[in-house]
Design goal:
- 2 copies of one chain form a homodimer.
- In chain A, 75% of the residues lie in helices and 1% in strands.
- With 462 residues, chain A is mainly alpha-helical.
- Chain A is elongated, with a radius of gyration of 31 Å.
- Chain A starts with 6 loop residues before the first helix and ends in a 16-residue tail after the last helix.
- At the A-B interface, helix 2, helix 3, helix 5, helix 7 and helix 8 of A face helix 2, helix 3, helix 5, helix 7 and helix 8 of B.
- Chains A, B: Its main location: membrane.
- Chains A, B: It comes from Hibiscus trionum.
């Protein structure tokens, strides 16, 4: 057990060491328990919906298992009632989209495969008892091979993978069981009804008790990603052009927030796939353009790659001297702050599902600052400088200019999405003299998380 | 159906239009069928292992359903034999790692939950018929809530998520069924044995017939990602410093290969999680350091972000004029070619699981070229140039210098991994006068895909 021992331990006998190990055991156990308790608390605090979900699962399973305890309910289905309990365990997922996707897949697949299974059983019995297993095995083999191959199609894998599995499962269950039990039709009917009950119970619990709409999560996550980039760009100017070395460590975490954007692609795709199953809820209609969120997400990620390049100049060993950096400081900081402003504005209005031109104004001012930066670079301010020392500062300037283009593209995509999803139109920030729309804006901000905007109420203030 | 109609169609009656629609139907159907056939063919050609997997699933299910057809086998388990078929449908996955993970999770969870379920049933019956359902429901509720919450722990989610679900499922099945059927012990035993049979059948089919080792896929994928970056860097020099505009479109796809590296994080993590379940196979031991592959993957991705920044200068509207680019062409191209060489060398030796110093030599020469580039930038070659025009070229130079650092880090991580995984040591490329090791190298190259290197055969040629 103990490969590495200290000289002191080596001198003592194995019994003494064993005793020491045993003595340290309660401490180790205590530490481990404390750590798990701490992690559990953090997990619950980070997202209290997790605790609610766990309680929902418990409730749904307990409710459905009542079928088993009450005589009149049990008499209808007998042992098949157990399928309802199993269905709840499997189908009830964290979000409404995932639950609906799994539930519909399971119900539809069971219905189709049950019908096919009964058909296969009838066909096989016609051929006589001898040939029946051969025919059944052939059917099962063909269905299993074809369906398994279909699961590899990317579109099928994204939305119907679970249904395909249940299809094979139910087909095997019904057609093979038929060999021993002639009441296949009853079995298929019972299986379908119990799965229907289980799925409906899951859906009711999932939707009616503190529902978690994955579409809303996707909406917030896309907005949050823009906000993360904005935070970086806001802090970047001060961090890069700072003269002294103080406060280097304090806001490192603040500057690293954008890194999660770099690898957000797969989680966004999963969320969009689930969101497409969801019913209309709150401000999101049934045919909400979830696919366009992926486009905005991709453009945000492209911007994050530029930000990553910018970040590498913060920590680079080769730095331009402070006086060279000082020369581009003013316009560079302004571009970065205006970019940050544009992203923050977009993140905030996007989150509130409002269409405004306020971000465009920030982009315009950043473009103006960019022109200043360019003309500054054109002047011969630089003649005496060493080119090698200048390169990092010049690269930073060039990256900052590229980021403007990225943000322009994001803004376009956000606008397109806003139009397709009928976001509320508002130009409150453009025309601050209109008290009505400002008030509305404020109300909106307070009830931020609930997002109580009704479907497509277009307030045209122009 | 047809919201948008041409004026011509509008003038004709609805019957004529209906006829036209019906006439076009067979054509549409034909087109659709052809498209699906084309896609199916491509899916099979891209990875023929998919076809093999589909056949394996068909075979395993058919084999296990024999239990149902043959009297002596059926007598042992009765209707429970169906659980074996269901287990095969659910457990048999594309790769050995995924199948082992699911199979072990399912078996272990069934065993533990079955035992607990029997215990809960015994405890509940002691309290009398009246209070039994209340006690059972309480047990089920507590187990469901606690287990569902545990599923949120990231480590549990990555490896034991399926097991946790089966745990709830089996516990409910055994404890709740016990209320109607007193032979819970027999039920738990039957369920466990049939799941054991199903899981073992899946594992045997999965491992014995053309096994797909996900660890090998991860190994190849990490090497391929390095190769993709190498391909970009190889082509970059020619593309960026080319004088005329010809052949711009031809090798665009060649230059875009690296983009898949940017978003490879989640697939690599999934593969590593599955790979950890796999037994030792071929050159990969049971405790192969799969986690270190993630480190190499992360560093490769960091390098890909730089390459992405480099790529943006290829397509940028703001370009340095050809004469400015011409000034840095020679050392810049050399750095990029040497970096590409280092990555190619690493990709190839990593794939073959050999440790050599050949990549280090490429890195050394790229560093020499970098020094040349730096001293070139220091000279006053540039005085007459416009700074704004110079910036893109200077940024490219700076990025190329940064890429060397990235590759240095990758090389270190690859070396660490090579040591931890006991890669074969070879310096064939360093000392080409040793015919033995060269021959070995050649043999290795031919049987590239099979990777027949035995465990840790260390050929020290020094």
């Amino acid at each position: 057990m103990e490969a590495v021992t200290s000289p002191q331990q080596e001198s003592s006998g194995p019994i003494t060491r064993g005793c020491q190990w045993l003595k340290s055991l309660p401490n180790k156990f205590c530490d481990k328990t404390m750590e798990i308790a701490r992690k559990t608390k953090k997990l619950g605090q980070d997202d209290p919906r997790r605790i609610v979900h766990a309680l929902k699962v418990g409730l749904a399973i307990t409710l459905v298992s009542l079928f088993y305890y009450f005589e009149p309910l049990y008499d209808g289905f007998g042992d098949s009632a157990m399928w309802a309990v199993l269905t709840v365990v499997i189908v009830l997922e964290f979000s409404v989209g995932a639950t609906l996707g799994k539930g519909l897949n399971r119900m539809l697949a069971t219905l189709v495969a049950g019908a096919l299974g009964v058909g296969a059983h009838r066909l096989a019995t016609l051929s006589g008892r001898q040939r029946e297993p051969i025919l059944l095995a052939t059917f099962v083999f063909i269905i299993a091979v074809v369906t398994t191959f279909i699961r590899f199609f990317p579109k099928v894998k994204a939305r119907y993978d679970y249904g395909m599995m249940i299809f094979i499962l139910t087909f095997c269950l019904v057609s093979v069981s038929g060999y021993r039990d002639d009441q296949v039709l009853e079995m298929a009917r019972d299986r379908f009804s119990t799965i229907l009950i289980g799925s409906c119970a899951s859906l009711i619990v999932c939707i009616c008790i503190f529902p978690v709409w994955i579409g809303e999560d996707l909406h917030k996550s896309v907005a949050a990603n823009m906000g993360k980039l904005a935070n970086f760009l806001e802090a970047f100017g001060d961090e890069y052009f700072k003269v002294s070395e103080e406060s280097n460590e304090n806001n490192k975490s603040y500057l690293q927030g954008y890194r999660s954007v770099l690898t957000s692609k797969s989680s966004e795709e999963t969320m969009a796939n689930f969101a497409r199953w969801e019913l209309g809820h709150g401000p999101f209609g049934y045919r909400h353009p979830w696919k366009m969120y992926l486009k905005v997400g991709n453009l945000t990620r492209d911007c994050a790659y530029k930000v990553e390049a910018l970040n590498s100049y913060l920590n680079s060993k080769i730095q331009s001297p402070a006086e060279i950096r000082g020369k581009i400081q003013v316009p560079c900081k302004r571009v970065s702050l205006e970019c940050s402003g544009a992203l923050k504005e977009m993140a905030s209005t996007f989150r509130k599902m409002v269409r405004t031109r306020s971000a465009v104004m920030h982009i315009e001012s950043s473009k103006k600052a960019a022109e200043e930066l360019k003309s500054l670079l054109k002047t011969n301010l630089w003649e005496e400088a060493d080119l090698l020392e200048m390169i990092p500062a010049a690269s930073v300037a060039s990256l900052v200019l590229e980021i403007i283009e990225c943000i322009d593209k994001i803004s376009e995509a956000v606008n397109e999405l806003g139009e397709a999803a009928c976001f509320r139109k508002s130009n409150a920030t453009v025309l601050p003299e209109q008290p009505d729309s400002i008030q509305q804006e404020t109300v909106q901000q307070d009830s931020n998380t609930a997002m109580p905007v009704p479907h497509c109420v277009i307030v045209v203030a122009e």
